[in-house]
Design a protein that fits this description.
Blueprint: E1 2-4, E2 7-9, H1 12-34, H2 36-65, E3 93-94, E4 104-110, E5 116-122
Antiparallel strand pairs: 1-2, 3-4, 4-5
Length: 125
């Protein structure tokens, strides 16, 4: 900082150096934040798949006890009916697949931006 004749302030070179340092920091930090969106979508899809697996287990237990409880599962897509709201969140689909009674199969959940995750479905009448 230059002091002379009653003026106080930063020199042009000091300001340029600060701008260059901030630019270097920004170039290093931005790529780390750009990929956060993809990671968040993958995590959200995995979370919905985990909810489907949990709903499937709860549905199977409830329906095994009393056939009036829960929903029948003969296809992977039927598991979404066991969720609390009775439907998948917007932007998610389940790949159709046959589930026979008493057998557990691995189903695929398709999420936003082509993210996918697996969940289990157990067939029950």
């Amino acid at each position: 900082m230059k002091k002379g004749k009653g003026q106080v302030g930063f020199t042009l070179i000091e300001l340029v150096i600060v701008i260059v340092i901030l630019g270097i920091l920004a170039v290093m930090a931005i790529p780390k934040f750009i990929n956060l969106s993809g990671d968040a979508q993958t995590a959200a899809t995995n979370g919905v798949a985990a909810a489907l697996s949990s709903a499937n287990a709860t549905n199977y237990a409830a329906r095994s006890e009393n056939s009036a409880n829960g929903v029948a599962v003969a296809n992977c897509t039927a598991v979404s009916g066991a969720l609390l709201g009775g439907a998948l969140p917007t932007g998610y689909t389940i790949t159709s697949g046959v589930v026979t009674v008493g057998n557990t199969v691995t189903c695929t959940l398709n999420g936003p931006s082509s993210t996918t995750a697996s969940f289990s479905a157990t067939g029950i009448n």
